[in-house]
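[09:14] KT: can someone run the structure on this one? pasting the chain below
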Amino acid sequence: MKITNVVEMRSELLDVFVELREGTIELPIAQELNNTAGKVLNTIKVELAKAALCGEKPQIKFLGDNKKCLPK
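[09:31] RB: done, structure tokens below
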């Protein structure tokens, strides 16, 4: 399944948490999934920081439903 937004990512990570508690996923796999998710989120943080420095108002599809939450 391709994760296309942060809500789906959160849901998948919560599933990983449950699987880890139930012992149905191996720890190294859970760690790598969390690591990768963190790296994806860090790229978004960089994009937001760059936009703030440049006075831009980015629309990052991964963060939501394409509603503008920043004033023009």
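[09:33] KT: thanks! The CA atoms of residues 16 and 29 lie 9 Å apart.
[09:34] RB: yep, looked fine to me
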